[in-house]
Write a structure and sequence with these properties.
Converts 2C-methyl-D-erythritol 2,4-cyclodiphosphate (ME-2,4cPP) into 1-hydroxy-2-methyl-2-(E)-butenyl 4-diphosphate. Residues 13-251 form the IspG TIM-barrel domain. Its cofactor is [4Fe-4S] cluster. The chain is elongated. The chain is an alpha/beta fold. The strands form 3 sheets. It has an 8-stranded parallel sheet. The protein has 2 domains: 15-257, Alpha-Beta Barrel (TIM Barrel); 265-369, Sulfite Reductase Hemoprotein, domain 1, CATH 3.30.413.10. It contains 13 helices and 15 strands. The two termini are 15 Å apart. The chain binds iron/sulfur cluster (SF4). Residues 270-273, 275-276, 303-305, 307-309 line the site of iron/sulfur cluster.
Amino acid sequence: MHCASPIKRRQSRKIWVGSVPVGGDAPIAVQSMTNTDTLDVAATVAQIRRLEDAGADIVRVSVPDMDAAEAFGKIKQQVRVPLVADIHFDYKIALRVAELGVDCLRINPGNIGREDRVRAVVDAARERNIPIRIGVNAGSLEKDLQKKYGEPTPEALLESAMRHVDHLDKLDFQNFKVSVKASDVFMAVAAYRLLAKQIEQPLHLGITEAGGLRSGTVKSAVGLGMLLAEGIGDTIRISLAADPVEEIKVGFDILKSLHLRSRGINFIACPSCSRQNFDVVKTMNELEGRLEDLLVPLDVAVIGCVVNGPGEAKEAHIGLTGGTPNNLVYIDGKPAQKLNNDNLVDELERLIREKAAERAEADASLIVRG
Ligand code: SF4
């Protein structure tokens, strides 16, 4: 019931992170990262399960040492979502988690050191069809590049990324994706634009250390929005100093706003004013909280009065328009039911769930496509 996305995505080579395709014609994957102590297996598994419930396609887990690698193996056995192990420098950790079933290695080949060690990691990845994510970050650029460019720049980020890519190229390993993150929106966007022209592999987008829930969401939406609208990006991570579950929700909301994914409810709500015939803000917030578990794509309009109500409600699968003495619910664009302000949220929730079930029954692939 809304415009199809006009975005033409950059054609990238598809890779697989476990069972999840990234790049090519695959939906843009939404990922997050655990912030528990990886050694605390129970807490990490619990957090990953919450991320799975929120719809995470991929989850990254920090693996700083060999004890964490063993814990990673136990975690891996208890969750369904594909796991990326985040490793810095120590190639032995990469080899161990490869044995333990990791779905993707986040490790920069240029930081591993000796060539035989890089080769050992690449061989292990090749043998098990495990992709590698090269992750360049403006905050940890190589010293010589800092010196050459004076400060982090998009060109410096690109040069760093291409060095790592060259390591893999030399070993004829193409099963990788790349990120060039910066906390500055313009720097990250410029770096990704450069990178998109240089390689055919999928790009993992992120504005690193974006900030807290509100500021980081806005920064990520602006930065990733610019890139995604140009067709750049195959998987995204929203970095927030907040509960990682929020990163998944924000990630899906960004993709939904660009019509790149359609998982769950797309709410259309007016900001309300003195013309409202029911409490729009309260109704909207309650519905959003109650319906987070719904996966079926559905447009729901919550509009306070007849000024914009009928127009928006008619375009939605379910639309509520405020009125006196009763509010009016539209279903599939047609006036269907009057509701007064008592039990408004309960009734709406019921109608929305019914509609979602009906749509899922008619087309089960709606959930998968989301
Ligand atoms: S739709 Fe009605 S209630 Fe909502 S903001 Fe507009 S005039 Fe106010």
